[in-house]
Amino acid sequence: MYKMKKVYIGTNWKMTKTYQEGAVYCNELLKISQRLSSDIQLFVIPSYTMLSSIKEILKESTIQLGAQNMHWEEKGAYTGEISPTMLSEIGIDLVELGHSERRQYYNENDEDINKKVLAALNYEMNPLICIGENMNQKENNISVETLAAQLKVCLKNVSEEDLANIRIAYEPVWAIGENGIPASADYVNEIHNEIRSILTTLYGSKGKNIPLLYGGSVNLENFLEYLQLDNVDGLFIGRSAWDMTSFKEILSSIDNLLTEEVNS
Ligand code: 13P
């Protein structure tokens, strides 16, 4: 049985769309979103080049706009980086931090991510912190320890007051992308329960309300199963949301589920 609360559904476009494609997508999403339950909190995370133009498209809507990364410093000699001041100036709502591709290809670590989390909070943007174990850690049965260490460091010095602005995405590295193996709903259930318990150990009852999203090969076959798990508050989707036909199908099924719940 589905539980009534806000569900967070969003997509990370990675490096896949041009501005032209992104604009067509967002205009379509805007139309679809007007027919959806207000309990669905949508978000899109495009590439930097189109953030201000997409902000214009989404400005009258409740769809949140995110950036895929951010430096923690306000300004300075950091060629190629984008600061929290720059993102907040264009009204960015959310910053994705610590995605496994950033950790894997650009050597980001939990300490860096922690500095970015604190900077995002300082600028009133929601950090969407990505955590996940790799296949080696899973096979060595240290998934939970890995996630606990990631959470502890990424959330260092985050106050209880700021918790309401934190979002966490559990994305097992082995489940992400073209070569990803979709996780079983049982595994996602087990790990999300563990993450919840790590958060309550860190923050007491306040740790119960932090939205926990699941991501990694979410597709038309598995999204409903994941979403109906107790500690899954939303989905963070790549490939299956890049194509509007499939994202639309996902969104209308979630909307039906929420509507059935209201009427039951
Ligand atoms: P896929 O859904 O394509 O596996 O990507 C998930 C992801 O990386 C979201 O950040």
From TrEMBL:
UniProt xrefs under SUPFAM superfamilies: Triosephosphate isomerase (TIM)
Entry function: Involved in the gluconeogenesis. Catalyzes stereospecifically the conversion of dihydroxyacetone phosphate (DHAP) to D-glyceraldehyde-3-phosphate (G3P).
EC number(s) given by UniProt: 5.3.1.1
Source species: Bacillus taeanensis
PANTHER family: TRIOSEPHOSPHATE ISOMERASE
Gene this chain is encoded by: tpiA
Binding site for substrate: N12, W13, K14, G177, S217
Active site residues per record: H99 (electrophile), E171 (proton acceptor)
Subunit note: Homodimer.
CDD domains registered for this protein in UniProt: TIM
Reaction(s) the record says it catalyses: D-glyceraldehyde 3-phosphate = dihydroxyacetone phosphate
GO biological process: gluconeogenesis; glyceraldehyde-3-phosphate biosynthetic process; glycerol catabolic process; glycolytic process
Positions of modified residues (Phosphoserine): S217
InterPro entries referenced in this protein's UniProt entry, alphabetically: Aldolase_TIM (IPR013785), TIM_sf (IPR035990), TrioseP_Isoase_bac/euk (IPR022896), Triosephosphate_isomerase (IPR000652), Triosephosphate_isomerase_AS (IPR020861)
PROSITE patterns, A to Z: TIM_1 (PS00171), TIM_2 (PS51440)
This protein's name: Triosephosphate isomerase
Location in the cell: Cytoplasm
GO cellular component: cytosol
Keywords noted in UniProt: Cytoplasm, Gluconeogenesis, Glycolysis, Isomerase, Phosphoprotein
